[in-house]
Specification:
Strand order of the largest sheet: 1-6-5-2-3-4
CATH class: Alpha Beta
Shape: globular
Low-confidence stretches: none
Structural class: alpha/beta
Number of strands: 6
Bound molecules: zinc ion
Strand content: 5-15%
Helix content: 25-40%
Distance between the termini: 24 Å
């Protein structure tokens, strides 16, 4: 609702994309992405939602719950060789090779958004900004730096706002025993959003 009103809203949690319709999985109990999509569609607040899931793991729960909801487009960029072993079928799955770094990853993000946003022209984008793509993450196999994560977040937000599409940021996954380092990493989303608002193109 805040994103629809203001153009952008970032949650300090959420992005629990492994939760299924009737069972939890992968540290996720409740699939907020699917529930937000269904709720806003059924309330008539939006006609089409696009879920851009950049968590390093596939958004399998979201894909399965929304499989028969054509107005909710599920897009998952994920490391191919990672949890879940048995992948679901999103509308768009973009599997990435292990060890991918900033430059190659950012090109995929730009190409995907340049293709998908004009194609679907969604009324809202739900952006799962998982930081388990980070090189120091305990469960990811990609190699993004802090700067790479910030560039990704900023790119997704600018792609949406540049086309007047409201966007919701959710923090998604991120795993480290060092809670302060992890909190800082998740905070990149909110600092990126602040930059986008302070310096619109
Ligand atoms: Zn994850």
């Amino acid at each position: 609702e805040q994103a629809l009103q203001h153009g952008i809203a970032c949650h300090l949690a959420g992005g629990t994309h492994h939760a299924h319709y009737d069972h939890p999985a992968g540290f996720c109990i409740f699939n907020d992405l699917a529930v937000i999509s269904r709720y806003l569609l059924e309330a008539g607040r939006v006609h089409r939602v696009l879920i851009f899931d950049c968590d390093v793991h596939q958004g399998d729960g979201t894909a399965r719950i929304l499989h028969d909801t054509p107005e909710a487009i599920t897009v998952s960029l994920h490391c191919e060789q990672n949890f879940p072993a048995r992948k679901a079928q999103s509308d768009w799955d973009i599997p990435l090779p292990r060890g991918m770094g900033d430059a190659d990853y950012l090109k995929v993000v730009h190409d995907a958004l340049n293709y998908l946003l004009p194609l679907y022209q969604p009324d809202l984008v739900l952006y799962d900004a998982g930081v388990d793509v980070h090189k120091d993450d305990a469960l990811g196999y990609l190699q993004l730096t802090d700067a790479g994560v910030a560039a990704r977040d900023e790119a997704v937000l600018r792609h949406c706002l540049g086309r007047d599409i409201p966007v919701v940021g959710l923090i998604g996954g991120g795993y480290s025993k060092d809670r302060h380092a992890l909190a800082r990493r998740h905070g990149i989303l909110h600092h990126s959003a602040q930059r986008v608002l302070d310096y619109p193109q």
